[in-house]
Design goal:
Layout lengths: L1 H12 L2 H6 L17 E5 L2 E9 L5 E9 H6 L3 E7 L10 H10 L2 E5 L14 H8 L1 H8 L5 E11 L1 H12 L6 E5 L5 H5 L4 H11 L7 H6 L15 E6 L11 H10 L5 E6 L5 H4 L1 H11 L13 E7 L2 E4 L5
Parallel strand pairs: 4-5, 4-6, 6-7, 7-8, 8-9
Antiparallel strand pairs: 1-2, 2-3, 3-5, 9-10, 10-11
Helix pairs in contact: 5-7
């Protein structure tokens, strides 16, 4: 009873807009269902496929795929990179990245996403995680002449997308050969209070309340809560910045990484450096660095515009890796 009274008091103390708004807030990323059709367009060395997939709740969402035209015609098996978008931001399938996929010899797939009540503010919704886990199969269904190398399927996401990539690795460890989580949030309840008000309302809408009222929702969407549960995490490349007050906050990625090390997780790498939140996703030279780290055949500039090093798990703790590891 005391806990319930405290929770009610905290909710009463929230700004009036927050109390009234989370159930009725409009989705700024809303869009109608896309048409159930598939089109192809040749753009330089790349075949761009614009198609659709049925999200977990039955909505038809956009799926954009870029494939090297020559490899598609030859029937060669290709690596596949699936991406999970940051909150509300654009897909990684820009003209530049689709041309890069065509030139470099890998397939790139960008699903639009779907949360409980929003489209691109899914914040780790269970249905979105399930959709991401089965995306390689959906890509093959939409592009039947594409041969995916199942030993070289990769998932990458930044910020919210990084959180969702980690949740896929923890809950569906066999879905991808390797996962890259860039600047992720690992504790949603902790992050809630530092979100801008608009984003806070959207996350409340997803969970139907703040953490004090719906702690189980925020826990389920937090990779930190899944460490050590069920199957071991699949191979993970975890990237965070000491300059980033979001993912680099000591109780976010650093605590999560130490938790993996303490539980003897294998097959994960931690990349630590100095860059702004989201820069790994937004800036082309930085994108090439984590793509190459995943195992994709892309060239990397000799001088990267950021510094990073690796950490290894040793005796239940993280220690600096050998240079170049």
């Amino acid at each position: 009873m005391r806990v319930a009274l405290i929770a009610l008091a905290l909710v009463a103390a929230l700004p009036a807009a927050a109390q009234a708004g989370w159930r009725d807030i409009p989705d700024p990323s809303a869009q109608p269902d896309v048409a159930a059709r598939t089109t192809r367009e040749r753009v330089g060395p790349t075949t761009v496929v614009r198609t659709w997939y049925e999200a977990w709740n039955g909505r038809r969402r956009e799926l954009r795929i870029a494939v090297p035209t020559a490899a598609l015609a030859a029937g060669r098996p290709l690596p596949l990179l699936v991406t999970a978008r940051p909150a509300g931001m654009s897909l990684l399938c820009t003209d530049e990245t689709m041309r890069l996929a065509g030139r470099s010899g890998f397939a790139l797939a960008c699903p639009s996403g779907q949360g409980v009540v929003t489209r691109s503010f899914s914040y780790g919704a269970a249905g979105q995680i399930s959709d991401l886990a089965k995306m390689p199969r959906l890509v093959e269904e939409r592009v039947p002449d594409l041969r995916v190398n199942r030993l070289r399927t990769y998932l990458a996401g930044s910020s919210m997308g990084g959180t969702e990539a980690l949740l896929v690795a923890l809950r569906y460890p066999g879905a991808y050969a390797r996962v890259a989580a860039l600047d992720p949030i690992t504790d949603q309840g902790l992050r809630f209070s530092s979100l801008p008000m608009q984003r806070r309302l959207l996350l409340q809408a997803e969970c139907d309340g703040p953490p004090v009222l719906r702690p189980e929702c925020y826990t389920a969407r937090s990779p930190q809560a899944h460490v050590g549960k069920g199957a071991a995490a699949g191979p993970i490349a975890l990237w965070y910045s000491t300059r980033d007050p979001v993912s680099g906050e000591p109780r976010q990625v650093p605590r999560f990484a130490e938790g993996l090390a303490e539980r003897g997780a294998r097959g994960f790498a931690v990349r630590v450096g100095r860059w702004g939140h989201g820069a790994l996703w937004e800036r082309a030279p930085m994108r090439r660095a984590w793509m190459r780290d995943l195992g994709l055949p892309v060239s990397v500039p000799a001088a990267l515009p950021f510094a990073w090093h690796g950490l290894n798990a040793s005796g239940g703790r993280l220690v600096p890796a050998r240079r170049g590891a």
